[in-house]
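This part of the workshop introduces the protein records we will be handling. Getting from the letters to the tokens is the skill we practise here. The record below serves as our worked example for the rest of this section.

…
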Amino acid sequence: MPRALGQPIRNAMTIDVEDYFQVSAFAPIIARASWPSRECRVEANIERILAILAAGGVHATFFTLGWIAERYPDMVRRIVAGGHELASHGYGHLRASDQTRAEFADDVGRSKALLEDIGGQRVLGYRAPSFSIGTANLWALDVLHEAGYRYSSSIYPIAHDHYGMPDAPRFAFFPNGPDGLLEVPITTAMLGRRKLPAGGGGYFRLLPYSLSRWMMRRVNSEDGQPAIFYFHPWELDPGQPRPGGASLKTRFRHYVNLQRMEGRIKLLTRDFAWDRMDRIFLGTQ
């Protein structure tokens, strides 16, 4: 949607609602069957996030796992009561690229119906776990459209060992024409010919805050586009349990600078204008 003359660009603040033991990198060491018996910390972390957003006057989009919503329906209702958008992160944090078309259709349909029943509002958006929609499974976007979703934020146009579609457009586009699903990629910034990840996650915790702020401001000023920022509730939780057996790389990526994350999110709420995905890209009220 066009911005009013003189108004700052509204960027999209997004939260992927999952717990520490559901992270894809931990899948080899944390059995899915053990999830129900593990200490769940997501509810307390979401409360902290809601307080930060309320203090900053920020409305956000919460891409929420059905597995979490089923167990914490009151938490989901508090998200909605705070004026935030409820969107889908699938049901059980299965990568789209690891599912057949039929399995994926069941997962996204189940999660959408569950979230709508609990939250009492239409669910228009979806984000694939681990940004797992790419060149090899673009059919997933058709499935989402058929299931009633209006947009996806599942493609990260960078090269990464776990995800990424480097040749994808950097900004919102219709992969199958204007009558299809809108895809809103995670933000990247250009430095010369090099594409830099600028949309959050482990990069945001690892890099100096000033660099992340510079990249997002560059996207706003040079490209004239909103930035899409994402983070997880467990990233504000340095006291979370630490399962054994993870590789050094996985441990570094997951735990680096967790203790600084809350302060950095607070800075973001002050340094940029933010809103929900549906309002920015679909023009909803």
Observations:
- The first strand starts at residue 10 and ends at 17.
- The chain is about 35% helix and 15% strand.
- Residues 101-119 form the longest helix (19 residues).
- The chain has a mean pLDDT of 94.
